[in-house]
Amino acid sequence: MRAARRAPAAFAAAACTLAGTVSVALAVAGGPAPELAGYVSEAGAAESATVWPYRLGLLAVAAGLVLLGVALPPALRLATGLLVASAVATGVSAGVSCRAACPLPPFDRVVPADLVHGGASIAAVAGPVLAMLVVAAAAGVDRPLRRIAVVAVAVALPLSLVAGLALLLVGRSLLMGSVERLLLFDLAVWGVASGLALGLARAPVAVGQVAGGTGRPHRRRTVDGRWPTSGS
Predict the structure, then answer these.
(1) 106-150 pLDDT, tens per residue?
(2) Range of the structural domain that residue 62 is part of
């Protein structure tokens, strides 16, 4: 029954993540820096005409993160906490805009709003990366959910390393912009795929339930990938 109750949250998480990602992507394409050398956040700069589609897209993504955390099984409480924290950081990133070109240290002169936006954006990305790492490493996780996390984290970790080094050593550049977009796309795919996997997972059936009129009990695995016990 718990898995059945989590299914609507899982499907809603996939829908919010997809809708938010599309909104942000359209804002970036129509924003002041559609080329790969620009930061994604430049579409949400206060002076940009695409600031509201960008902000609304981020808020939808934040809602998707919370819903995905709600849909995760109880054994993944750490991942849920990371997703909720990421959602808060995403909301801060949406609410506090950077200036034009989103200046960041150590190459640019910044104001407090630039630092708040930049720090919140980094935290918003780090949360899902750590959450997918928890899902990939945790015991008793449903196999499809684990496989999705393993593939996603295998892509996200090297991209995160390159993005961090590029931010510190290169700054705003084609390398930074390309890696940032690839990393965000990987996180979006993970969120949508995980939501769908959780929503489609079969709820456990009671041990005493008769299957196909054979008179023999039929059991299914829970969403956590474990066999239900007689007391569950």
Answers:
(1) 888 889 999 999 999 999 999 999 999 999 999 889 999 999 999
(2) 2-198
Domain membership of residue 16 (yes or no) is yes
Predicted TM-score (pTM) of the model is 0.84
Q: Select from 102, 90, 43, 94 the least CA-distant residue to 191.
A: 90
pLDDT band at residue 3 using 50, 70 and 90 as cut-offs: low
CA 141 to chain centre: 18
Q: Tell me, yes or no, whether 111 lies in a domain.
A: yes
CA gap 60, 90 in Å, rounded:
10
Based on the structure, what is the number of domains in the chain? 1
Burial class for 229, CB neighbours closer than 10 Å (0-12, 13-18, 19+): exposed
Question: Residue 229 region, left (φ>0) first, then alpha (ψ -120 to 50), else beta?
Answer: beta
Residue among 9, 10, 4 at smallest CA distance from 145:
10
What single-letter amino acid sits at 12?
A: A
Q: What angle do CA 27, 40, 105 make, to 5 degrees?
A: 145
